[in-house]
Design goal:
Layout lengths: L9 E3 H7 L5 H9 L3 E3 L2 E2 L6 E3 L6 E3 L2 E2 L7 E6 L29 E2 L8 E7 L2 H8 L7 E8 L5 H9 L2 E5 L2 E4 L4 E6 L2 E6 L6 H8 L3 E10 L13 E3 L2 H10 L9
Parallel strand pairs: 9-15
Antiparallel strand pairs: 1-4, 2-3, 2-5, 5-6, 7-9, 7-16, 8-9, 10-14, 10-15, 11-12, 13-14
């Protein structure tokens, strides 16, 4: 794994400590307010204090130098039979694929993939980006390769999905779906591109037209794809261009309210 790049020229003090694995945001705020954190010779008690990049190396906690890590952005090719949660007492999770040196850095998955769904899963400790990437406000797309059983899908289903429709597969539940792009590959395969992420949405949409999903692979999330030859279970760092693209896609150049 290559060295990680800091994409921020300045950052809130509490976020710096959170990204570096010093505890939860509430724990860190309490620690800062207790007066044990200094920047150079100055004790800082305001968690929201902006620290410029050239002062990151001057941060100390109880006299010890901060072990600073910048935001980390990873792409995992999630394998089958694996939970996107970091911890589970019974089933394997994505934790096993995170390099040991990066565990404890506050990484979490951006959204979720089902236990049997494979493909692109982003992980980061940039909480603001993760929130925006999963927010319906920004209409970021997710594309899946679907293997299904039943009669071949055709133009009728392509049109139905492109117009959006109301899903009524659960008693008392009316789920209004946004338009989606269905592309036919052959009699048992298609791709489906969504701009939202309802629970089990792909499987429910395919079921609504009388077919069953037998295999589901996410090949793209918000414009990010697997690297050529990236095998199931392999993880890579996003490139600077990919990070810049994601930030632009979810308008992270805007001022973020505190």
């Amino acid at each position: 794994m290559t060295a990680f790049i800091c994409y921020n020229s300045n950052m809130r003090l509490d976020r710096i400590l959170a990204n570096s694995g010093y505890g939860t945001r509430s724990q860190i705020k309490k620690m800062i307010r207790s007066g044990v954190v200094s920047v150079g010779d100055t004790v800082v008690v305001d968690p929201g204090t902006d620290i410029t990049e050239d002062h990151f190396s001057n941060i100390t906690i109880s006299g010890g130098k901060l072990d600073f890590s910048s935001h980390i952005y990873l792409c995992l090719n999630k394998p089958d039979r694996c939970l996107t949660a970091r911890k589970d007492p019974r089933l394997p999770t994505v934790e096993q694929f995170i390099p040991q040196a990066l565990r404890g850095k506050g990484l979490s998955s951006v959204g979720r993939l089902d236990y049997h769904t494979t493909g692109v899963l982003l992980l980061t400790n940039d909480g603001e980006m993760s929130h925006r990437l999963t927010s319906p406000k920004w209409h970021l797309t997710k594309s899946y390769t679907v293997t299904y059983s039943g009669l071949p899908l055709g133009p009728e289903e392509v049109s139905r999905f492109s117009e959006g429709f109301i899903l009524k597969d659960k008693p008392g539940d009316r789920l209004i779906l946004a338009p989606a792009q269905l592309t036919l590959i052959d009699d048992t395969h298609c791709t489906l591109t969504l701009s939202e992420g309802k629970t089990h949405q792909v499987k429910r949409m395919i079921a609504s037209v009388g077919r069953s999903v037998t295999d589901l692979h996410r090949h793209e999330f918000a414009g990010i794809r697997l690297a050529a030859g990236q095998k199931p279970g392999e993880i890579r760092e996003l490139t600077r261009d990919e990070v810049v693209y994601l930030k632009s896609s979810c308008k992270m150049t805007e001022e973020i309210p505190r």
